[in-house]
Write a structure and sequence with these properties.
By secondary structure, the chain is an alpha/beta fold. The protein has helices at 22-30, 57-62, 68-72, 88-97, 101-104, 131-134, 140-146, 163-169, 180-190, 204-212, 217-236, 291-302, 311-316, 365-368, and strands spanning 46-52, 80-81, 110-112, 119-121, 150-155, 173-176, 196-202, 242-246, 252-253, 259-261, 272-278, 281-286, 306-310, 334-338, 343-345, 358-359, 369-370, 373-374.
């Protein structure tokens, strides 16, 4: 089968400037091993990583007027990339483990539980799935501790002990902090430890973008609040402590007329036993022997609205990095990466998703490029 290459797609910069390279680079900057060849950061006695969910590098450039502090750091930095798919569960696990999606195994917002007809929703982790079995690799936080450093996660209390937290961030001390003031105070306190990495997560911008769209009045106001939080945090820190502001992905607005509903185009259901992933990056788990027909049908219906690849083709392009055998069945037999601002929805299987304005998951620059801002 021949496949086209969308020129607007951005390849993940694994083992270079991807989100998974951040913690190993910080470990090197702290003098705790790591791998400085992947991403070089200035040495410091302590590092803070403020991860702003949904703050793509292109969005920050486009709306710099709403974030004067963060945008002032752009001239001294180059963007990095998310992994594939460009979605929170995959990205946070790459960040916490230092691994590519094909190695750590969280390959999307939803992905098939091998041997079943059920999906694992990584943000609403099912109790029957052990997160350590799902993601058995030693995390980058654990490597840091073994090398004489320490790691602290500052996040909302509700995320303590969640499946995603255990899978992605075990090895770090968890400090619950729900409000901005709490988060800043907890981060400053944790970062007072020498050779420490403190990870601060803020998900409010992503929440706002999903519901109101990027560049909406609500989103711009939230961006301004994030900017003030980052500047306040920087001001509260000793000069020698480094603040690194990153994101897990960007976002695009997908208009209703650019959404293809598989429950209206029923030919898209033919041969598909299970629909996974999310609207901008679908995993299609096919009935036995149906892969070729599914690829042909989806390419005909979607045309230039998406890249439709077999699993092997997507792996060959390096989208997931090296893929270990246990992760292979979690990937769709066919994967569908949306182009431009298109999306593939299911009003039956994922009704809530279709109510969202902002979406992410694919490989466009607005979704893939992330800031790597050092202050």
């Amino acid at each position: 089968m021949t496949t086209r290459i969308d020129p607007s797609f951005v390849a993940p910069a694994y083992a270079g400037r991807s989100l998974g390279d951040v913690v190993p680079a910080i470990a090197a900057a702290l003098g705790c091993g790591g791998d400085p060849a992947r991403l070089e950061l200035p040495p410091a006695p302590a590092y803070i990583v403020m991860l702003v969910d949904g703050l793509g590098a292109r969005l920050l450039e486009r709306y710099a007027h709403a974030a004067p502090f963060l945008s002032s750091l752009l001239q001294h930095s180059e963007p990095g990339t998310a992994g594939v798919p460009s979605t929170t569960a995959t990205s946070l696990t790459s960040f916490g483990t230092g691994l590519t999606p094909g190695s750590h195994g969280l390959v999307g917002y939803t992905s098939r539980i091998p041997g079943t007809e059920h999906l694992l929703n990584a943000l609403q982790w099912p109790k029957e799935i052990d997160p350590v079995e799902w993601q058995p690799n030693v995390t980058a936080f654990q490597h840091l501790a073994d090398a004489g450093g320490s790691a602290t996660v500052v996040n909302k209390r509700e995320f303590k002990g969640s499946g995603l937290t255990v899978a992605a961030h075990r090895g770090a001390e968890f400090v619950g902090a729900d409000k901005v003031g709490e988060r800043i105070a907890a981060t400053v306190e944790a970062s007072a430890q020498p050779r420490s990495l403190t990870y601060l997560y803020d998900g409010d911008l992503d929440w706002t973008g999903h519901r109101h769209g990027v560049a909406s009045a609500s989103w711009l106001q939230q961006l301004a609040m994030i900017d003030a939080e980052a500047e306040q945090l920087r001001d509260a820190l000793p000069h020698a402590t480094r603040l690194l502001v990153v994101a897990d992905h960007g976002m695009i607005d997908s208009p209703p007329e650019h959404r293809i509903d598989v429950d209206e185009r029923l030919e898209l259901r033919s041969g598909v036993a299970l629909l996974g992933g999310e609207a901008r990056f679908r995993h299609l788990y096919c009935a036995r022997g149906a892969v070729a027909d599914v690829v042909a049908t989806w390419r005909e219906v979607l045309a230039d609205k998406a890249e439709v690849l077999t699993r092997d083709d997507a792996i060959a392009r390096g989208w997931f990095g090296p893929v270990v055998p246990g992760v292979l069945p979690r990937l769709g037999d066919v994967v569908v990466a949306s182009c431009d601002d298109y999306a593939v929805v299911s009003t039956t299987d994922f009704p809530y998703e279709n109510t969202l304005v902002g979406l992410h998951g694919s490989l466009t620059a607005d979704e893939m490029l992330i800031p790597l801002l050092v202050s």
